[in-house]
């Protein structure tokens, strides 16, 4: 059996993008505003117009606050995504309370937030949202303002009809949520299967190349090493006792035998990985990441903060190595003289902070960092001493951020405080994520 470990953003959870919720809420605000205006003006219906606009304005203000507070690429934790969707349900329920409750034909829109949740959030978040929507729908059956209608001919719908609408909402919520969840799960499984296939093929190609190289090396060097060993043994046997050459001949024979043993181990690498070699401390991993970038005229320092006896130990994951390496490379490219790397951990998390003394992130870029093809940083002035232009945060940086998030990390971008210049990138993992880092290798059972 083959077990391929595929970590998703948020370490096992898919996060809802805040920008998606904001756009959907703007669409709801526009639609609600138009509906209230048409009902109040063209239909000349009597209902609390001012309160309705106040409820709609509350959603608009919430969108403005969220837009000012978070970047356009911010992804919500599941609980915060569920809370924002719960607010959307509550806001719509307030509008329905002011405009006739379940007698209002727009009551079916209470299904929309539950549908969004079922598409992206796990069932343990969607189920409470569905129950919350049904609880509010039940309350609207008994408590609501009259349906906006001609005051001279009031509309009285029978209770049995209202009960039918309630039953339809219950069944619709359950069916649509389950259907959307199943479709979403199947789509994710297909994507994960394709990713797993790519990882397996990539590993198999690497192992095949390694197997071929090991076999060729063993074949080419096996015969001369055997000859050297044989000649050394004969010389060792023929030399007279007490000869000063005996020690040298014995050393030559043992070293030749050692080379043959190394070749045997090399030939076995394609079938069995050295797992102990793949495990390393987080500080050692950073040293491995930083080493290729030390000879570019920039001083790189690594500071460790934390109890050395509790230092996290993970796997040498190619995704983590590439992601950290790409960020360090960008920091070196844009730094004036120094790059500081601080690694710290506690009982629950581990974080790496990379700070440079370069121009920092431009104001029009920092909110879009992590999106593909974002290639502007700093003032746009080239750095001729290293022939690096003030860009470089394009697809490679997007891939690095994605790989780090797939390992369970949360990646944050900022500039140094006023009075200093330079960029700050903080990558933080839960300790459980560090322990679960995997190489794209397979475990045979």
Task: Please give the radius of gyration in angstroms.
Answer: 32 Å
- The CATH topology of the largest domain is Heat Shock Protein 90
Strand ordering within the main sheet: 5-7-8-10-9
State the name of the first-level CATH class of the largest domain.
Alpha Beta
Q: Number of helical runs?
A: 13
User: Which band does the percent of strand residues land in?
Assistant: 5-15%
Summary?
This protein has a five-stranded mixed β-sheet with strand order 5-7-8-10-9. It contains 13 helices and eleven strands. Helices cover 56% and strands 11% of the residues.
Written overview of the protein:
By secondary structure, the chain is of the alpha+beta class. It is 56% helix and 11% strand. The protein folds into two domains: 2-157, no CATH class; 278-435, Heat Shock Protein 90 (2-Layer Sandwich), CATH 3.30.565. The protein contains 13 helices and eleven strands. The strands form four sheets. A five-stranded mixed beta sheet has the order 5-7-8-10-9. Strands 1-11 form a two-stranded antiparallel sheet. Strands 2-3 form a two-stranded antiparallel ribbon. Helix 4 (78-98) runs parallel beside helix 6 (123-142).
